[in-house]
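Re: guanosine-5'-monophosphate structure - here you go.
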Amino acid sequence: MTPICGKLFVLTAPSGAGKTTLTKRLLAGDPALRFSVSFTTRRPRAGEQDGKDYFFVDHARFERMIAGGELLEHARVFDNYYGTGRAQIEAHTEAGTNVLLDIDWQGARQVRVAMPSSVLIFIMPPSFAELGRRLRGRGSDGEEVIARRLSEARDDMARWSEFDYVVVNEAVETALAELQAVVAGQGGANRTTDPALRGRLAAICRG
Ligand code: 5GP
């Protein structure tokens, strides 16, 4: 009998696109979907819990994990290292459990190679101007950090064509419904091969 393997769903977005909210809502509505808790060298933010939001480790431990082949993928993002533990992913997928990874585009690219059957989903803000408004509205970063995040976001946004699906997060409820359809295998309108979607994405990236 062929074993039933769980699927990997990779969610990637530029900062400010609303990925955290969508991830939380998606997981809350689908108890069968497990979140992959990443390893990171960055410090915990207020309210973050070790083992739930991230496994917080120091540089030496992270480098040992890379050397030992313990990470399925890893990348440097905003001056810190982030990576996905291989053992955790294998345990879930071998048990037939679907897993959601919230990782950046560099990690998504590595997962595509390591596990070609994974489903890569990009969350796109409705416009570059809206992304700026959202980042400023958070009130947590200074203008210099915002300018850097916006410039990196512009580079990130241009990578949508490397993904299988794109969800434009203009209204959270609509984006969530589209994401749920993609996870259910019914996200045809969000496929990056869809001509209408491609036109919309090209316009967003030009803006
Ligand atoms: P934050 O520090 O705000 O939690 O995350 C910063 C960025 O790192 C986000 O884009 C997030 O998706 C990405 N990230 C989080 N975990 C991982 C990981 O395990 N691997 C990679 N490649 N990126 C990650």
